[in-house]
Specification:
The protein has helices at residues 4-8, 16-34, 37-60, 65-87, 91-109, 119-140. With 141 residues, the chain is mainly α. It has one domain (4-140). Helix 3 runs parallel beside helix 5 and helix 5 runs antiparallel to helix 6.
Amino acid sequence: MKGVAAGLLSAGGTWRGPALGAVLAAATAAPLALLPPVAARAAAANLLTLIAAVYVGMAMAGASRRFLVIQITGAAGFFLLAVLGLWLDGWWIVAGLVLHGLWDLPHHQHPAGVVPAGYPGLCAVYDWVLVLFLAALFGAV
């Protein structure tokens, strides 16, 4: 199996990771829905930076220096999108989460020994389900 579906499946070809990602995204969206719009946007911006930092932490746990530099560079880009989303428009956060979901997919094929099997699929689905919620939230604001 190749492409996006292969990137989403966890080791062994199961959908457990992606299913858990969808459940966790719904659990994240619920409290965001209760916040005032400005606070929800700030929380979503923080969430994007935290999500991006996870791979940096994994890289620090024992990957090569090259992998660490790649992850720090990617995290810096997502941080920039989070700041733009906080200061300018929440749609920058939505764009950041869409891109982070795409960023997750290559980690399935090249986990560098520190990314748990199934995590990239879980994270990509989490990102994209959260995108749907935030798009609805920001579209209504």
